[in-house]
Design a protein that fits this description.
With about 230 residues, this protein is of the alpha/beta class. The chain has a single domain, classed as Rossmann fold, CATH 3.40.50.150. The strands form two sheets. The chain has a seven-stranded mixed β-sheet, sandwiched between helices. It is globular, with a radius of gyration of 17 Å. The N and C termini lie far apart (about 50 Å). The structure holds S-adenosylmethionine. S-adenosylmethionine binds next to strand 2.
Amino acid sequence: MIKRLLKKVPFVYIWYKKLQYKRLTKENNLSQDGLLQSAPTTQLNRHPDIFEDLGARFKDQPIRILSFGCSTGEECKSLSTYLPNALIIGVDVNKKSIEKAKSKFASEKLSFYHIEAKSLHTLGKFDVITAISVLCRYPESKLIQNIDSVFPFSIFEKSVGYLDQVLNSEGYLFIRSSNFRFMETEYNKKYKVISFKGQRQPEIFPKFNKNNCRLEGFEEREELFQKL
Ligand SMILES: C[S@@+](CC[C@H](N)C(=O)[O-])C[C@H]1O[C@@H](n2cnc3c(N)ncnc32)[C@H](O)[C@@H]1O
């Protein structure tokens, strides 16, 4: 009820969310820019189009997958049903979510870590990385024309840099529901865009250019990238 009222006055809502980020950053001992999307919303089999594609692409291969921003583990659990031989590692900056993920889904092939993006290199290299609904600030990004003071492009670029560091060459990076375009980052020269069969109809998500200005009505079409 209060949240619904707050959303009617964007600048008050944004101020309220900033307080929430501060609290979560402190609670989880994170560095200043360590927290991206804060909401832990997730569900089983939320993105069957990409899970099916990865399942078909890698079949029974024992690949290593990183779910960046795994929340309570449902994304990892879903991936494991399509890729039964993959080793899947879920990471999240929210301690409580990681504890829940461990208690519900941890197994020989599924493990979970409370870790920040800058420390991902301690987990080794991956063949596939998913970053779904994490490289964003939502719903505030719906309400603003310039995202600079909420989630600037520089933090997006720095975060994808940490993902790039731990992705093997020829590996796949899947980014969905992010506030910026991966191909606008400095990493674009190292990747090619892959369109895949069965990709869901493009959806509109609040997108901004590298100068933090809103791109009106932008539909997400480029989501899967292969490292050259
Ligand atoms: C909306 S959930 C997405 C869950 C899952 N990927 C999905 O799409 O179902 C966003 C998650 O990203 C996590 N998160 C935010 N900043 C992060 C960061 N820097 N590194 C890892 N996880 C982060 C949040 O704690 C939250 O659990």
